What we know:
Layout: H1 13-43, H2 52-84, H3 93-117
Helix pairs in contact: 1-2, 2-3
Amino acid sequence: MRPPLDPSAHPDYRFTLANERTLLAWLRTGLALVAGGVAVATYAPDLGVRWGSAAVALGLVLIGLGTALAGYRRWRANEAAITAGRPLPSSWLMPAVAAAVAAVIVVVAVLVGVEVMGR
């Protein structure tokens, strides 16, 4: 078996495979958020106001869609950096998803509070 012609011209496959696993993790996260939105729309009560569960469900579905799309964008940027031998670019994805989910949690807490106080 002959070695590759120029080993320095090709990035290590382990980095590419790790990048793909990271993309799959972001896709799973997006899918879980969408599934959570569907579950809220299907099984949750009105959450204090008539439109409460619909708003939370829509928020979760949109955050899930955004997470999947941003994960793909991040994968492309990382792949380009790996191929060019540059450092990986910084990402805003993790703080943005965390802030969006935290916002949904605050909305749910307020709606549950309205539900409890209305009893």
